[in-house]
Structure formats: C-alpha cells, structure tokens
Fold this protein.
Amino acid sequence: MGAGNTEPASLTGGNGNYEDAIADRAETVREVSGPLYDAHRDHVRALTEQFHGPEAVAGEELRDGEDAAALREYVRDYCADDVFPVLNDVGGGEDLSWNRFQRALRALVEALYLRAFQRYSAARDHFTRVNRQRREGKEALSDAEAAIDFDGDGGLAGEESPGEAVANAASIVEDAESEVAAAEEAVADAHFYYALAAAYQTEQGIEDAELEGVSLGDDPDWYLQDLRHERDRLATRVEWLRTDFERLADRR
C-alpha cells in the first residue's frame, strides 16, 4: 500500500495526494479479490447516493453533535444489515484466507478514512475562498454604492457605471453563495466518510496502529464540530452579504 517514509495522513494534515493514496488501496483490494472490491464499491455507492438523495437520512442536516451521532448510527446500521453480510459472503465464496480477507478490509478502511480526510481538507479550502469572496464582495458593494451615489453628479470619467458596479457585486455574491454550497457538501461528506470508515474498522476489529499511512490521532468529534461551526458562521455571513446587495440593488 506504499505508505513509504512519508508522514501518515490525518484528518487535519496530509500531503494532499489523496487520490493516489486511495487508488493504491483500491488496487490492493482488487489484488486480493475483484468481486470483493466490486461489492464494496457498489454498496458504498448506493449508500452515498441515498445520503445525498431527496429522501431524509438520520442526522443528514448535521446541525449539532446529536445529528452527527445519528448519522454515525445510521451508517453503522446500514453497513451491518446490507454491506458486511455481503462482503463476508463474497469472501467465503472466493475462499479467501482470514489474513487475505483482513488485508483487503484494512485497505478499504484506510481508503475510507483518506476520503474523509480529503473532504475535510476540501471544506477548509472552500472556507478560505468564501472568506476571500466576502472581502471582495464588501469592496464591490462599497464601489457599487459609491457609483450609485455619484451617478450623474460629476463622477469621474472611466469609473464604473452604477449598472456595471452592481453587476460586478452580484457576480461576487453569487460566487460566494456557490462556494458556501460546495463547502456544505464537503462538510457533509467528511462526516459521512468518517462514519463509514469507523463502521468498517469496528466491524473488522482493526486497531488504529494496524492502519498504514493513516493516523487517527485527531479527535474527530472536536474537529468535525469545528467544521460545522465554521460552515454555519460563513453561511450566515454570506446571507448578510446577499441582504446588503439586495438592499443596494433596490436603490437603482
């Protein structure tokens, strides 16, 4: 699985090369049993689509720790009922030794944690962009307000017209809203994949120290809670930005 001498990835740290690391784990599982990998992939895909689908899933809003716990329980129960029995049947049908089966499942656990780490990192990146767009949005709103105030009142040649200034502000606000939506999805995914990885790990009785290239030293409850708080804070700030823009646009 090629962890090499690099530092193991964790929830709050890693070298960012998650896709290659996840692909390495997938290849390990396929080397043990292609059907086992296919069964895992298909069931995880079904659960992921259910999580992101229109039907309500316990804890999906992730408003607080209770929602996060409800989501973990939902994922754990789904896996116990619909995933693990299938994986066990496939392993038996492939006549895999216990060691080979455990090797494959350990790689799946690592891949799921890596996916959670990747989505946590993505959420943080989205937060950074939202903060930048908020600053740019405030500046654009200030410029638009000045353009409206000075329109037809001796404004300087070459300055933006009120229409141009308002359109620029609108574009930045829309970009910030899109970035918030992307951040919200990444936050949800980080919770979902961490819950899925933990369910697999617990089912197979795999110790943290047995995982290669993955460190579970970061407290997931604390860091995922912090992620939710930052998501909510920035969503509120961007809502305020939208309100300020609409108030300004009404002046035109």
Remarks:
- Confidence is low (pLDDT under 50) at residues 1-5.
- The longest helix spans residues 98-150.
